[in-house]
Design brief:
NADH Oxidase, binds flavin mononucleotide, 221 residues, alpha+beta
Length: 221
């Protein structure tokens, strides 16, 4: 598989088969992704690979807290507090695409709520990855981390696996760190669901659009 194909095939997958993924597959993917660049080759990534009972403990824990009404909060500000265009309209379109594919009405709060809860289960994926960053590292490491995370997703495509990067899995950092035994001070960047795509699931049937390159690039000579 070439890189262009992998870039185009990768998509956020929100329904997985319960077919298991081997430790060797995950190790291969992480090993490939570790070739990602990072400033001064600092390689700031620390990954928790969570499966089985530990995954169930984490996912049910997150769901419970959420259902109790605790909205949690990430270790850092990922999204803007006040959205502005053009990002606001792209974000709205993203939600419309998801909910219209699932035939969930805008006003159907219950179904939208349950769809959100699916986030805390990694949409049924057998493997969850949690990405941690040493708090001594600064903003640049988030840039490095993005490259590492995309590398994981592309290597997963080559393995025939699907992924969904998830900020939602970073919403209850205290719980995750406690259950996995990480230091309280470490930064939980986000999580990722990894597994085999459920190709029958309608939620996986659409692709998100992209702006034309003319909207975000300027050429100078
Ligand atoms: C860091 C990051 C966090 C994300 N968090 C979530 C999430 O919590 N839940 C979710 O369903 N999708 C999440 N997404 C997926 C985005 O919605 C998705 O990447 C975007 O709509 C583009 O679609 P595509 O990934 O299918 O190309 C996240 C993506 C990134 C890069």
């Amino acid at each position: 598989m070439n890189v262009t194909d992998a870039l185009k095939i990768r998509k956020s997958t929100r329904a997985f088969l319960d077919t298991s993924v081997s430790r060797e597959q995950i190790e291969k993917i992480l090993s490939s992704a570790s070739h990602a660049p990072s400033g001064t080759n600092a390689q700031p990534w620390q990954v928790a690979v969570v499966t089985g009972r530990k995954k169930d403990e984490l996912t049910s824990g997150m769901e419970k807290i959420f259902r109790e009404g605790d909205m949690g909060g990430m270790d850092y500000q990922y999204y803007p507090v006040k959205w502005q265009n053009p990002y606001k309209k792209r974000r709205v379109a993203c939600g419309i695409q998801l909910y219209s594919t699932l035939q969930i009405d805008r006003k159907d709060k219950e179904k939208r709520y349950e769809q959100w809860v699916a986030n805390y289960h990694g949409f049924g994926a057998p493997v969850l990855l949690f990405f941690f960053l040493d708090p001594v590292m600064k903003t640049g490491s988030y840039l490095d981390y993005g490259m590492f995370i995309q590398s994981i997703m592309l290597a997963a495509v080559e393995e025939g696996l699907a992924t969904c990067p998830q900020a939602a899995l970073g919403q209850y950092p205290e719980l995750i760190k406690k259950i996995l035994g990480y230091d309280r001070e470490i930064v939980l960047v986000c999580g990722m669901a990894v597994g085999y795509e459920d190709k029958e699931a309608s939620v996986n049937s659409y692709r998100t659009p992209r702006e034309d390159i003319a909207t975000f690039s300027r050429f100078f000579v």
